[in-house]
Amino acid sequence: MAANSPDVALDERDPFLSPRHGGTELYLIRHGDALPDADELSPGDYDAQTLSELGRKQARALADRLRDTPFAALYSSPLPRAHATAAPLAAALGLEVVVVPDLREIWLGQVGPALPDGATPQEAAAHLRDRLRRTARRAATTGSWNSIVGSEPAADFRARVTAAHDRLAALHPGARIACFGHGGTINVYVAAVLGLERDFFFPLANTAICVVRVKGQRRMLLALNDVCHLREAGLLELPPA
Q1: Which of 144, 148, 218, 158 is nearest to 186 (CA)?
Q2: Strand 176-181 vs strand 97-99: parallel, antiparallel, or unpaired?
């Protein structure tokens, strides 16, 4: 590319992909806690669960923090825990939450023992917590979702999630949007932004905010795992270990 080409000149004027020059700012927000106690448990596996009491408090704290932040649109994974996290902010801003199927968490194979037939609600709630803990440990240790047999292929997952976020960014040049997703989706997209091979490289707290700017084929990470709203609300808890 010639040094005096328009693209190079634009790069020199806009090294930080500013929305003032057509960049899109993506707030990537993980869902709130969705490991309910036995009395709140929904039938089904983790993907059938919505927010726990703690998760609802986290979502409200997030909405309180962002209610004065201008967003052009709010997007969400189709899973209940993500959509429910977006709902308080959507109500505060008067915006609709648009469901994007490709923001869904990775399809996982079996992790740990299966829940036995006839399990009590207490046993089912404990099983969900154990499964999430095992999943997080496996992902953090190996860095690859391919280590869990029967899962969506890691390369397909990365391609799906990266294309979805980039596609949404392209719809809103010069604006700010929020994408409510999951520990896996946000890890893999930020990994793509940073050029990392690992699918999972950091523990993401519930309702934590990561910020990425996108402009064409260029991406830049601005913030990672921001949980100031949880600290101020007295809700800061460490991710599952």
Answers
A1: 158
A2: unpaired
- Hey, is 230 helix, strand or coil? helix
Integer CA distances (angstroms), 195 to 64, 137, 176, in order: 33, 22, 23
pTM of the full predicted structure? 0.90
Tokens of 239: 């991710």
For residue 224, the model assigns a pLDDT of 98
pLDDT on residue 128: 87
Q: What CA–CA distances, in Å, run from 77 to 17, 115, 153, 155?
A: 26, 26, 19, 19
Tokens of 226: 């921001």
Give the contacts of 190 (CB within 8 A, at least 6 positions apart). 28, 201, 210, 212, 221, 224
Per-residue pLDDT of 146-199, as tens digits, reads: 999 999 999 999 999 999 999 999 999 999 999 999 999 999 999 999 999 999
Helix (H) or strand (E) holding 218: strand 218-226
* Dihedral over alpha carbons 46, 48, 54, 60 (to 10 degrees): 130
Q: In whole angstroms, what is the distance from residue 205 CA to residue 193 CA? A: 19
Distance CA 220, CA 213 (A): 5
Q: CA-CA distance, 129 to 214, in Å (whole number)?
A: 35
pLDDT tens digits along 54-86? 999 999 999 999 999 999 999 999 999 999 999
CA angle, 137 then 138 then 139, to 5°: 95
Model confidence pLDDT, tens digit, residues 7-41: 444 466 789 999 999 999 999 999 999 998 888 88
Bridging pattern class, strands 73-76 and 97-99: parallel
